[in-house]
Design a protein that fits this description.
By secondary structure, the chain is mostly helical. It has three helices and no strands. Helix 2 packs across helix 3.
């Protein structure tokens, strides 16, 4: 049996991927990853990033990989 949170996030991702313009979905995916990464840095390295920094990281990554 799957974790409910995991299933819900997967459903959300699939729904957004099919209903959103590609550019919006790509930005959402990068911001989601950047938030997850920032959370891990806080938990495991005691580094806390500001929300504006997280957004800039996501935007930079998206530009780099396009």
């Amino acid at each position: 049996m799957q974790n409910t949170d995991e299933r819900d996030f997967r459903s959300l991702t699939m729904e957004l991927g099919s209903a959103s313009p590609r550019e919006s979905f790509e930005m959402w995916a990068m911001i989601t990853w950047a938030i997850w990464n920032a959370q891990n840095k806080f938990l495991f390295e005691a580094i806390q990033n500001q929300p504006s920094s997280i957004k800039l990281t996501a935007q930079s990554l998206l530009q780099e990989y396009q």
